[in-house]
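User: Continuing from earlier, I have the next pair ready.

Assistant: Great, send them over.

User: Here they are, in order.

Assistant: Folding the first of the pair now:
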Amino acid sequence: MVRASRALLRKYGNFMDTLRIYAKGGTGGMGLPRLGGEGGQGGDVWLVAKERTTLKKIKAQFPQKRFVAGTGANSSLHALKGGKGADCEVDVPLGISVISCDGRQIGELSKAGDRILVARGGLGGCLVTNFLPVKGQIQIVHLDLKLIADVGLIGFPNAGKSSLLSKISHAKPQIADYPFTTVKPELGKIMYPDYKQISVADLPGLIEGAHANKGMGHKFLKHVERTKQLLFVVDICGFQLSPKTQFRTAFETILLLTQELELYKEELRTKPALLAINKMDLPDAQDSLNELVKQLQNPQDSLHLVEKEMIPQNTINFKEIIPVSAHTGQGIEELKMSIRKSLDEDSEKENEEYLKEKLNVLRTSEV
């Protein structure tokens, strides 16, 4: 068991979603008291969001993880006002949250070109500082990556998420018939005939108690936060992690997944969601699906059969329920179209709200 655990850690080690760095603003330049000359300000340290950058690349390129800006120029007879020190710009991936060493969020970098100042340069020597230079600010910050994707796959281990991702996109995740095959997030893109692309993140399987960080729960759940929509993937035959754990029906699985999201961060439950019922090629799957659909249409009628601890405060109203088989390909095209339709509807809704808001601003300004 120890050997297997180490193997999982090595695999997850190939994907980095957090990195701690040292940032120091440049020291200011020396002033020239007899002529009132001011030294240049020290350079600043900036984090800049850039595509095709990873935390792993940053660590490989800068093993010491130290970023120091340039020193301001001294005041001189040739230039009484010293020039500013060179800024240090650190390219980071999109989707980074910048956290200070005391846990305070400094900011987020969501799109290419976004910038955050993490360490300001010191003042150059001037009258206020007795013409002595001031040292730059020092900060130790954590870079916390949360994947940005249109759709996030949610499910317990062995629900078939990886198989499904390989069917709907060009991604090639590792697939096997045992739980926890996916030990790091995988990104894939659904390609449509009209060249439309939709990004899908396959997140490692959750377990009961993920909201309390069981099974690296927080490490995986945080990636759900920046997805636009959720796609629940549920095994129609139910789920059992091991012989020592309790078997859960498909209906119970959906309740537990909803509860894990709700307890981790309540707003996750309000994200638009689709439900893919997987492994429909298995015997009696259609009968099980009919029963599950009845339970989801009237969940209150079935909740008395479920343990109280498993019931979320609110159930999720899925926009669509799509029966699929990642093994045979059944329902895959319908699922791809449902994903696109759902995202398009939400995009139109956002555009309408934006236009209404702009119209209200115009009407207010006219008055």
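And the other member of the pair:
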Amino acid sequence: MSNSSFLTEFLHLTFADKRELQLLHFSLFLGVYLAALLGNVLIITAVACDHRLHTPMYFFLLNLSILDFGSISTTVPRSMASSLWNTRAISFSGCATQVFLFLFFISSEYYLLTVMAYDHYIAICRPLHYRTLMASRTCVKMAAAAWGSGFLNAVLHTGNTFSIPLCQGNVVEQFFCEIPQLLRLSCSDSYFRKAGVTMVSFCVACGCFVFIVLSYVQIFRVVLRIPSEKGRHKAFSMCLPHLTVVSLFVITAVFAYLKPPCISSPALELVVAVLYSVVPPTLNPVIYSMRNKEIKEALMKLVQRIVFYQS
């Protein structure tokens, strides 16, 4: 019986064995990563540089873009390097670091999306108290709470996962170190040690989800009572991107972690992992900029500045 303390490395699942397909995977992931990098950096720069966007909603959007960039940078570059250099190995410490950082960014993003739902609720349902309830100091505290909660969640799960004895080999059936796949390597009598921590996080996640749903129930009740069509359209334009991002995040994560074992297969799990770890960070900047006039104008001004300085 081998213990996790004796493991020095893990082996990832590869997307392909043939060299040509490995290079194709590298090229596709490079394109996706550069698109995510460009989109999120543009959002961050636009919000930071345009004083018109120095509001609570865009402050939280800036934090969301930072978290998106961090989460995709934790998994995709490592997978690209594996395909380029034709290696599956990752060190024990490297795997633990990847688990911690991915959990940190993903958890913080979920908590931040909950905070953003509260921001939308106050903006639409209690507009007269918005400046008081969403003051700058309050927004910073809420963002810090989201980041801090994500950090604690990552520490808790990473520490608990890597303290469990692993006696089923060192092959992780995923393109990055993912906790469900690592738990499959654990000894059967150690699995229940993880169950308690998982239930706590599950309850917190459900609480956040219920809060988001209840917030939007109140928001839609108020919006549907707005007499002017222009007012309703403005309110929906504010909420639709956030609702789309939350739906994308929750649906892909739920399917990844709660899908029935009977439909589980290495190929399906690989596709699902890409959907919840790669697709949301890439699409979120697009979702937030498509229907947002202020973001579009800020991005246009930013591009014009860059072109002007280069010329």
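Worth noting for the second one:
Residues 128 and 232 are 17 Å apart (CA to CA). DSSP finds eleven helices and two strands in the chain.
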